[in-house]
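Handout, section B. The chain below has 85 residues.
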Amino acid sequence: MKKWNLGKDAALVLMAKIVNGADTDNTLWNQPEAAGLNAIAEGFRHVGLKDDHAMLAAEFPLYDALYAYCGEMVKRGMPNGAFAK
């Protein structure tokens, strides 16, 4: 985010927190949505896709939807997501 100066997009900032939490132990941001993304990502490993390219192609709509969710949260005045305390 910092390297490419992407921090001006609040939806992308929230998405980065969710993805980071799914990829790590989630202690940095404590983002509740991360657990769901982690479960879905794990599920993609078990649906029998033939290679990484097929898996990425299947996952792209998921990340498009996640970005749309993040944009909606920002629009609703909840830049930390729907489940933030």
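Note. The longest helix spans residues 52-75. Compare this with the example in section A.
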